[in-house]
Structure formats: C-alpha cells, structure tokens
Amino acid sequence: MHLIITLEASEEIYTLEVSSSMTLADLRAFIEAESGIAVDKQTLFYKTAILEEEDKTLSEFSMEDYDMVMLRARTQESNESSQNVHGELTAADQNAIMNDVEKVRLQMLGDQALCDLVRQVCSIL
C-alpha cells in the first residue's frame, strides 16, 4: 500500500510504498531514510490523532492505501507538548492540522496529475 506523508510547515510530500504489516517504528525509520528527519524528532498524526504505539502495525491503525499521515518535525526549541493533561490534542493543534489538510487540498487541486491519481485510487473524491 501507499501512504502520503505531508511535512508540516513545508510543502514537502512523500509517497511511500509500505506494507500494512509494517510497525509504526519501522514507518518512522523509513520516513527518516526518505526525509532525513530523525526518528526521535518525528511526531506523526493520522486522522488528527498522534501515533505513539510503536509496536502497532499500520493495519492496526486502520491505515489504507493512499491514506495521509502528517509529519511534524520537532526542534530543540519546540519540544513543548501538543497534548493536554488527558493526552488529547489541544484545540490549537487540531486547528493547525485542519489548516494543513486544507493546504494539501489546495496543492492537490493545483496539480492535475496528482488529482487524476487520487481519483483513480478513490473515485468518491
């Protein structure tokens, strides 16, 4: 299957061919190899949730072909938690994710080849 990895705060998009039996830890290592962002600096979001269970497989996260995962690269200055005391995303982070989704949507609309590919994979769109 393929995953679309979008890098927050940039327009970089990676399409990775992965196995649904791959663990989150393996995905992080693959992303590091493709993007150069160290595993310990990655925060991954899928459907507005932070991915944290490293031994869980992609299929256990219910990921499907051409699903989108957002990658936030943490820096030394920005290591503050994006979760509240209950482990949930803060409202500001939820808004940031929605803004990123809109940014990707607009980028896709401007790229006819990418639109055609998405329509082939998911005709509902």
Estimate the global geometry from the Cα principal axes. globular
**What's the helix count?**
3
| Helix and strand pattern | EEHEEEHH
Strand order of the largest sheet: 2-1-5-3-4
Strand segment tally: 5
β content, as a range? 15-25%
Biggest sheet statistics:
5 strands, mixed
Radius of gyration: 15 Å
Low-confidence runs: 77-81
Mean of pLDDT: 82
Distance between the termini: 19 Å
Category from helices, strands and their pairing: alpha+beta
Instruction: Provide the helix percentage.
Output: 25-40%
Short key terms for the protein model shown above:
125 residues, alpha+beta, 3 helices, 5 strands
Structure characterization notes:
The chain has 125 residues and is of the alpha+beta class. The protein is 33% helix and 20% strand. The chain is built from three helices and five strands, in the order ββαβββαα. It has helices spanning 24-35, 91-109, 112-121, and strands at 2-7, 13-17, 42-46, 49-50, 67-73. A hairpin with a 5-residue loop joins strand 1 and strand 2 (13-17). The longest helix is centred in the last third of the chain and has 19 residues, at 91-109.
Summarize the structure in short.
With 125 residues, the protein is of the alpha+beta class.
Task: Please describe the topology of this protein.
Layout: E1 2-7, E2 13-17, H1 24-35, E3 42-46, E4 49-50, E5 67-73, H2 91-109, H3 112-121
